[in-house]
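Aim 2, interim progress: modelling of the nicotinamide-adenine-dinucleotide-bound target.
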Amino acid sequence: MRIALIGYGKMGHQIEQVVIERGHEIVSIIDVNNTIDFDSPAFKSADVAIEFSTPASAIENYRKCFAAHIPVVAGTTGWLEHLDEVKTACIDGKQTFFYASNYSLGVNIFFALNEYLARIMNKYPDYNVKMEEIHHIHKLDAPSGTAITLAEDIVKNLDRKKNWSLEKENKASDIAIHCIREGEVPGIHEIVYESEVDTISIKHDAISRKGFALGAVVAAEFIKDKRGFLGMSDLLKF
Ligand SMILES: NC(=O)c1ccc[n+]([C@@H]2O[C@H](COP(=O)([O-])OP(=O)(O)OC[C@H]3O[C@@H](n4cnc5c(N)ncnc54)[C@H](O)[C@@H]3O)[C@@H](O)[C@H]2O)c1
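Predicted structure of the complex, ligand included:
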């Protein structure tokens, strides 16, 4: 498969390795200083583009992929306020867009576990739920896209929670999210249910970025000949 990489930072470099390991070809690498290459024949020859850049650049990059009719695997987080706009552009333009707040298989298993636990907890009102997420100091968004997905999945499944908020703005019907930025941590998410008598917690700890990169390349293989607005629930059937 011919792959274009958009964003050549920590994730772009990790994805490049996985792309090569899985026998695909990188035909174009676009970063902040060569965005003119969106107009190049090399970029236009890609079967799929994998985009991990910044919240400020992602939307424009998706638009350029749609204009070139190149399916996009979108990894950048922190742009979800534009989700409806991107979805409409994808569907109306008959394009292909795959988004996951987290591409790692382990995190997606964790998402399923989180939803299951939240459903059980409807019967046990003595437990309050909170979340902690820890990432490296370079991360631009807080809470993480993964933390937002976890919180939204709890809201969907646990009737007594209506929203999430950063810890300091917390209301009883909110899930408090405590965000920590330290060192070079790839990503830790922990959901904690506390009662007066005990604590139940589930935790995902990413050891490296390779799990995210592998998931993104598997998603690229999956969307090559598909159309529409897709996500991990289309790829992974638990
Ligand atoms: N969905 C997931 O599974 C997942 C996993 C890890 C990281 N992320 C997200 O991916 C994004 C990138 O993460 P990272 O750790 O590689 O960050 P990074 O800062 O290491 O890399 C970002 C790159 O984007 C480049 N860039 C800036 N403007 C650009 C533009 N207009 N066009 C193309 N490239 C541009 C920067 O120069 C940089 O090289 C972040 O939003 C992060 O939260 C998502």
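The first strand starts at residue 2 and ends at 6. The chain has a mean pLDDT of 96.
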